[in-house]
Each structure stands twice: as structure tokens, then as C-alpha cells.
Write a structure and sequence with these properties.
Helices cover 35% and strands 18% of the residues. With 319 residues, the protein is an alpha/beta fold. Strands 3-4-6-5-7-8-9-10 form an 8-stranded mixed β-sheet, sandwiched between helices. A two-stranded antiparallel sheet has the order 1-2. The radius of gyration is 19 Å and the shape is globular. Residues 2-53 form the TubC N-terminal docking domain.
Length: 319
């Protein structure tokens, strides 16, 4: 029964693993139905025993990722979703509280010759028991070191929401001249960061997550799930607050900025996202993309096509 349950979970892209006597899981939004959560709770002990025996440790959604995971040191790992022997590398930084699985569909969305690599920081998914970063400086140092060590190919750094603030700091640190573009998705710049979000009560933070979208209601309402992701989310929000800059305190990067805005995103609307223009000395363009605050999870094909068009410089179109 447990083996069949594991097979059914994987067929629905539910990631499940055991670590230090605890059951962990993650999945795309539409997979976390009340029935799935009930199955996880009702079969917790049997799943733990089976997973600890070594069966099912690698979720199917990850098994097709060529190259697997690389850990260059400094506390961050790199999940390679697509492989290319040469050409452009797109490094992706997830939003607060999220990990590489948010972008699992990008493995099929990437155009030929584009390698997509997602930063996997401690504190989330199968690294949930590792202490997360709480300040941007050491996190950006570690990511920049990983990017510098990855190879000698041209690259783009894309950050989703909080990830864009970190991406900006990464590009302030990379040593190579191979950077081609900073892509800010669903994000406002550092001088628009508001503080004290990390200090919210659990109830207020859960209400904020519900308003942001991207997290299934069933997960927000499940005590096991909340206990898994809230500590990491709070730590990530502390990272965000450490990115804050005063009005007029601008640290521009010397690569173009491409700002992507969700058409229905009320948290990073076009009027705010356009303020990223002051954060580059090399040019700026913006595009409106279908969706809300979590549009990068579903619009990978359009995003990667836009990146490929702009990597060699501005092109007609956009804002």
C-alpha cells in the first residue's frame, strides 16, 4: 500500500522525503488537495519507514534534471533544470520561503541552448533542517561565488520577488564580466522595501501569504505544513529587510535591467516596478506578463524568450 501511495504521489509531482525522523513534502500548487494532505497525515509513519529504507528518496519531478545538484560551497547549492554545453546560463533566485520546485516546469520551457539553474538555499525543501540565511550580505556572497565558479559562459541573473533584491546584490559582487542582464520579476527595488514584515504574528503572516497567492489554501490551513515553511519564510523576510535602502540611496549595476510585471500583481505593480530603471547604468526595459505575483511559476516559456531576446541589448517593444 505504501509503495503504491508513493507512486501515486510522484505521478502528481508531489515531492516527499524523510530526514532525521521527519516527513517532508513539497508540490506544485494544484497538487496539494485536501485528499493528498489527508493521505500524508494518515500514512505518516508508514511513509517515514519506507523512505528511511532508501526507497523513493528521489522524487520523480527531479529525476529528469540533467546534471543534478552541485554544491560549490558557501551554503548554497545549484539545481540545474536544463543542460547546455555552451551558450547562455540563467541563474534563478526564488521568492521568499520558496525553493527550486517552484520552477520545475521551466525544465520543459527553456529554449535550446539555454541552461537554467535555480539557487537552492538552506532552510527549504529537502534542506529544511539547515539554518537559513538571515542577512543578504553572506547569502549574496555565497551565490556570487557559486556563479563565478560555474564556468566561463555568459549569464543572466533572474530574481522573483525577494529574489530580485538578492539578485541585485549578487551582481554587485560577481567578479567576471560575463553578466548580461538582471531580470527583476514581480519585484520593487530596494528603496521601496518596507520593514517589520518578518515580525508579523503567525496569523498575520499567513493572511499575507494568502493575499500574495501561490500557496494552496490547504497548505496554509495545515498545521504540519505551516510548521515547515513559516521559519524559513521569516528568515527570508529578514533577508529582504536587510536589502532596504533609503530613498535616493541607489546602487546601480552595470548591466541592463529587464523588469517583468504580472498584469494582475497588486504587490509589485508596474508603477513600482518601473523604479528599477534607476538601478542600472546600462539600460532598462519592462514588460507586462499575464498573471499575478507568482506569474514566473507558470510563464517560464515567455520569460525565457524575453531574456533571450534582450541578452545582447535592448530590442524594440516593452515599456
Amino acid at each position: 500500500m505504501i509503495d503504491q501511495l508513493l507512486q501515486d504521489l510522484r505521478s502528481n509531482n508531489v515531492r516527499i522525503w524523510a530526514k532525521e525522523g521527519r516527513l517532508h513534502f513539497d508540490a506544485p500548487k494544484d497538487a496539494m488537495t485536501p485528499e493528498v494532505l489527508a493521505l500524508l497525515r494518515g500514512n505518516k509513519e508508514g511513509l517515514l519507514r519506507r523512505l528511511e529504507e532508501g526507497t523513493g528518496q528521489r522524487p520523480a519531478v527531479w529525476e529528469e534534471m540533467p546534471g543534478g545538484e552541485r554544491e560549490p560551497g558557501g551554503g548554497v547549492r545549484l539545481k540545474r533544470l536544463t543542460a547546455a554545453t555552451d551558450g547562455l546560463v540563467v541563474f534563478v533566485l526564488p521568492p521568499a520561503g520558496a525553493g527550486p520546485s517552484l520552477f520545475h516546469t521551466w525544465a520543459a520551457d527553456a529554449p535550446e541552448g539555454v541552461e537554467v539553474v535555480v539557487v537552492h538555499a538552506p532552510g527549504r525543501e529537502d534542506r529544511i533542517d539547515e539554518p537559513p540565511y538571515r542577512r543578504v550580505a553572506p547569502l549574496a556572497d555565497a551565490i556570487a561565488a557559486a556563479v563565478d565558479a560555474y564556468g566561463d559562459r555568459p549569464f543572466v541573473v533572474l530574481g522573483h520577488s525577494a529574489g530580485a533584491l538578492i539578485a541585485h546584490q549578487v551582481l554587485m559582487r560577481v567578479r567576471s564580466g560575463r553578466a548580461r542582464l538582471l531580470v527583476t520579476a514581480a519585484s520593487t527595488p530596494p528603496d521601496r522595501v518596507v520593514g517589520d514584515i518578518a515580525a508579523m504574528s503567525d496569523d498575520d503572516l499567513l493572511a499575507a501569504m494568502a493575499a500574495w497567492g501561490g500557496t494552496p489554501d490547504q497548505v496554509l490551513e495545515d498545521p504540519l505544513s505551516r510548521g515547515e515553511f513559516l521559519p524559513c519564510l521569516r528568515a527570508d523576510l529578514e533577508v529582504v529587510e536587510s536589502c532596504a535602502r533609503a530613498e535616493g540611496d541607489i546602487e546601480p549595476v552595470d548591466v541592463p535591467v529587464l523588469a517583468l510585471v504580472g498584469a494582475e500583481d497588486t504587490f509589485a505593480p508596474l508603477s513600482e516596478s518601473l523604479r528599477w530603471a534607476r538601478w542600472s547604468t546600462a539600460g532598462f526595459q519592462a514588460y507586462v506578463v499575464p498573471g499575478g505575483h507568482f506569474f514566473p511559476a507558470t510563464e517560464g516559456a515567455e520569460i525565457l524568450a524575453l531574456i533571450r531576446r534582450h541578452v545582447d541589448g535592448p530590442v524594440p517593444g516593452g515599456i
